[in-house]
Write a structure and sequence with these properties.
Blueprint lengths: L1 H31 L24 E6 L3 H11 L4 E7 L3 H13 L6 E3 L6 H6 L5 E4 L6 H10 L3 E4 L7 H14 L3 E3 L7 H11 L6 E9 L3 H4 L4 H12 L7 H10 L8 E8 L4 H6 L19 E7 L4 E7 L11 E4 L2 E4 L4 E4 L11 H7 L2 H13 L5 H15 L7 H8 L1 H10 L5 E2 L20
Helix pairs in contact: 5-6, 6-15, 13-14
The structure holds nicotinamide-adenine-dinucleotide.
Length: 454
């Protein structure tokens, strides 16, 4: 802990030294960007928001597609988590979800599938503590806002929001209603990510300067499927050119770097390659397929560079169409060491400057206590190698214990804001764009974080 505070203070001092050089670029970005809207008198910060402990956590889920069902599966494996209501516009999906809850021995949950606003009835129930939102991206914020206004906490799938206005709506609604609003960024709970988080907290990598993150998932042919989950995803690729899925790689890096606990994203620049791979996959469809008429706005590979207030840089990449093997990159540079992932490896100052690829000794020494304690159950319950279970377990645990949640609405807004801001930067020839300060000046104070906790 002491090492951590010292390194934070040093970094703030050093940031002052290199701040002048950064000021020119930052100033031009700020000139072009609107100032952050002031906080209304009826709003109050929700950093470190806490509620009294709950006896059980009653969950209502909206969106019982692939992701909603998977999240519900994890919740049903967690002691004292109870699914009381489910909602989807497709009645068969609601029926399947209800059957799965009953098969687990829980009481029959209420089902909502009347129309596309029936989720409001779920939000109005008095036997729901938290609403999970696992619907297509454009619906996340209206649903989350409805839930918070009905007095519920919310957990939203990624990205939480896809416009800047939506990012602010989330923040303002959470502050007005004083409700938890957490984005379900499961990758923050990956075994390697939590190992890195722990090593950072212990000072193993020294002072952090740079990170590289991304979402690389070779998926071009799959995206052309007629399944509705691919149809809405493809629509975004037809309409927008930028990083349309930033948070899986960026979320863990933001936690490593104490973003909203001493640092914040300040500006970004973004560049997209030309589009080729999805249209090539489209051209492999039969000549009379209606999808042959589609055109895609999003370049194959988007690369975004974020500069933080402490002068660190973060590269975030988005590529779901080239044949690159899966990776979230997860590379972190510090003054004393560098961690790289896919495959996991480390290089420490004073050693050979070759990657060490046997991480067993590091896992033994620095493995995160959450993983040490829950690994067997996480692997059994599953979901992306166990991290989905751990995320859900931890969310339920914090509500049961009356603790602040690991991630706040400010994280959801800032991490998701890369979606619209990268689009804006690409559209303006990669000009720097200011990232709003969603905390409205409260990003400097250290915050309680899951590092070290079990
Ligand atoms: N964190 C992860 O690893 C991960 C993985 C997959 C998907 N996701 C996210 O989860 C979300 C859902 O993705 P998916 O793959 O499950 O998509 P999906 O299309 O399979 O599921 C979305 C569901 O929402 C329902 N829905 C749509 N509008 C609705 C409305 N008005 N009211 C109620 N239900 C409505 C649809 O009928 C569908 O069943 C997305 O935000 C996606 O980015 C996250």
């Amino acid at each position: 802990m002491a090492e951590h505070s010292i390194s934070r203070r040093n970094l703030i001092q050093r940031a002052g030294a290199c701040g002048a050089a950064a000021a020119v670029g930052a100033a031009s970005a700020q000139a072009a960007a609107p100032a952050d809207p002031p906080r209304e008198a009826r709003q109050k910060s929700v950093l470190a928001l806490k509620y009294p402990p709950l006896d059980q956590v009653r969950v209502g889920l909206i969106g019982m597609g692939g992701r909603g069902m998977s999240l519900m599966g994890n919740l049903l494996d967690i002691d004292k988590a109870v699914v009381t209501a489910v909602c989807d516009v497709v009645p068969e999906r609601v029926a399947a979800a209800v059957a799965r809850v009953k098969a687990k021995g829980q009481a029959t949950p209420a089902g909502y599938s009347k129309n596309d606003t029936d989720y409001r009835s779920l939000c109005a129930r008095d036997d729901v503590d938290i609403v999970y939102v696992a619907t297509p991206w454009a619906d996340h914020v209206p649903m989350a806002a409805a839930a918070m206004k009905a007095g519920k906490h919310v957990a939203i799938e990624v990205p939480a929001a896809i416009t800047l206005q939506q990012c602010w709506d989330l923040v303002d609604t959470a502050e007005r209603t004083q409700r938890h609003c957490m984005m379900l960024e499961n990758c923050c709970y990956g075994e390697m990510e939590m190992l890195v988080m722990n090593m950072v907290r212990k000072g193993v990598l020294g002072q952090l300067t740079h990170a590289e993150a991304g979402y690389l998932h070779a998926f071009a042919d799959g995206l052309l499927s007629n399944a509705d989950s691919m149809v809405w995803r493809r629509r975004h690729l037809m309409e927008s050119n930028g990083n349309l899925y930033p948070t899986h790689g960026l979320g863990p890096v933001a936690l490593y770097m104490d973003v909203h606990g001493g640092d914040r994203f300040e500006t970004l620049v973004s560049m997209s390659s030309c589009e080729r791979s999805l249209s090539a996959a489209r051209d492999r469809l039969p000549a009379d397929d209606p999808r042959r008429k589609e055109t895609y706005a999003c370049g194959d590979v988007n690369t975004t560079l974020i500069k933080t207030a402490l002068g660190r840089t973060i590269m975030v990449q988005f590529d779901i169409v080239t044949p690159r093997p899966y990776s979230r990159i997860n590379l972190l540079c510090g003054t004393d060491g560098v961690f790289g992932d896919y495959p996991p490896r480390i290089s420490l100052r004073g050693k050979s400057h070759q990657w060490e690829s046997d991480l067993a000794p590091y896992v033994e020494k620095h493995g995160h206590p959450l993983w040490v304690r829950h690994k067997a159950q996480a692997l059994k319950s599953g979901g992306h190698g166990g991290m989905d279970y751990l995320m859900n377990w931890r969310l339920v645990h914090c509500l049961l214990a009356g603790k602040p949640l690991d991630m706040t609405v400010y994280d959801a807004a800032a991490w998701s804001s890369v979606y619209p801001l990268s689009i804006a930067s690409v559209a303006s020839g990669s000009a720097p764009v200011r990232v709003p300060d969603f905390t409205r000046g409260q990003w400097k104070a250290p915050r309680p974080l899951l590092a070290g906790e079990a």
